[in-house]
Each structure stands twice: as structure tokens, then as C-alpha cells.
Write a structure and sequence with these properties.
Length: about 170
């Protein structure tokens, strides 16, 4: 089961109140497993929908979602960048969206994306293989596909292991 989850903000009723419609469907069959109107799409509302689908249909093999800001940018995450750059939080979010969109397009086109001092993103081919459905234990065939991989830079590895700060402090 390949799930696709998405939300759409709209004035669903005649009043001016806007609600998000969260929909979870099987990408292969287009069968809708979950639909719910909420005041605002959030990680909590999405996870509640996923829980309901898992309880009724079992575990899924893969999940596709859009790049909803509630999945990766929190107000606290944008504030330091906005402060450091003198930009507003919305400008920071638009910039991040543009960077991610360009990186996604580059990967889809077969290019690698190097973020100096951070790491390299590349698209890799995976061969068709036999797998097991975790919900049923049934043997299944998994089609060949492409996936994104990330290889951290030396600088990032050093920072994660506390070596980068020590080296910078000794040079100061």
C-alpha cells in the first residue's frame, strides 16, 4: 500500500471560515482511506489520520506527502535564520522552499546536489527485489525505483562528533 497524504485549505462552507481538508489515499488505486476537515493542517492532525488508516488497513509500504511546512520548519527553526540574516520568517521559508524545489528538480533530472560544508544529495537506482509486507507478512515484489541519498560532508561529521568546535576554538 503506497499512501499519498495531502491537505487543501479552502472555504468549504458558505461562511468565510477556511478549513483544511486532509485526505489520505492509496496512490495505486486512488481509494480514499481517510478524509477530515480540520481548522489547520499540522503534524498532529496528519498523524491522527495516519493512525486511523493504520488501525483500519494495516501498515503501509511507503508514504508520500508534500513539503508542508509543519513537517520540517517550526517557528523556532526559522527564527534564528531570520535573526542571523535580517530577513523575515516568511522570507526565510520562501527561500528554503525555493532551495528545496531546485534541489528536488535537480535530483529528478539525475544531477547531484552539493551543499558545501553540509553534504551531497544524489538520486540512486534501486533494483527490483522481493520484500515482505510488514502488516501481513506476505511476500511481495518491490519494483525498481529511484531514491534520494545523503552523504554528509567532513565538516558536518566533525561538528556532529564535537571535533569541529574543538578545532575552531583551538584556532581562535
Amino acid at each position: 500500500m503506497l499512501l499519498h497524504i495531502d491537505g487543501s485549505k479552502h472555504c468549504w462552507f458558505q461562511n468565510s471560515q477556511r478549513y483544511d481538508l486532509i485526505v489520505i489515499l492509496d496512490d495505486a488505486t486512488s481509494e480514499i482511506y481517510y478524509a477530515q476537515l480540520v481548522e489547520e493542517e499540522s503534524t498532529r492532525t496528519v498523524m491522527a489520520g495516519l493512525r486511523e488508516v493504520i488501525e483500519s488497513k494495516g501498515l503501509f509500504c511507503a508514504l508520500y506527502s508534500d513539503r508542508g511546512s509543519h513537517f520540517f520548519v517550526t517557528p523556532k527553526a526559522g527564527e534564528p535564520v531570520a535573526t542571523a540574516t535580517g530577513q523575515t520568517k516568511s522570507e526565510v521559508e520562501r527561500t528554503l522552499d525555493a532551495i528545496l524545489d531546485r534541489a528536488s528538480n535537480a535530483l529528478a533530472g539525475g544531477d547531484r546536489v552539493e551543499l558545501r560544508g553540509f553534504g551531497i544529495l544524489e538520486a540512486k537506482e534501486t533494483k527490483a527485489r522481493t520484500g515482505r509486507n510488514p502488516g501481513t507478512g506476505e511476500t511481495i515484489q518491490i519494483a525498481a525505483s529511484r531514491r534520494a541519498t545523503f552523504r554528509p560532508s567532513k565538516e558536518l561529521k566533525e561538528r556532529l562528533n564535537g571535533k569541529r568546535e574543538a578545532a575552531q576554538e583551538s584556532n581562535a
